[in-house]
Write a structure and sequence with these properties.
By secondary structure, the chain is mainly alpha-helical. It is 69% helix and 0% strand. It has one domain. The chain is elongated.
């Protein structure tokens, strides 16, 4: 788990958007069985990835809740930096 909490949540948001986009595409391509099947497979894979990410996020929050240390020690909070 080298990802920060915010990067995991960002990945979850991205997957949710991809699921929604593929669901809308599936509605448009109902008459094409092959295209519908491929979209359905993609949606199923995205749901598996989504479930995995939710478990990982839950695990990170559980670790944070169990850690009786300063949350600002650099492990849980990433320092802001500007990129130009």
């Amino acid at each position: 788990m080298s990802d920060t909490t915010s990067s995991l949540i960002d990945k979850l948001i991205t997957i949710n958007l991809k699921i929604r986009f593929n669901q809308q595409s599936l509605e448009l391509h109902k008459k094409s069985p092959e295209k519908s099947y491929n979209l359905f497979q993609a949606i199923a894979d995205l749901y598996l990835q989504r479930d995995q990410l939710i478990l990982e996020i839950t695990q990170v929050f559980s670790e944070i809740a169990q850690a009786n240390t300063d949350l600002d020690n650099g492990k849980y909070i990433q320092r802001k930096h500007k990129t130009y």
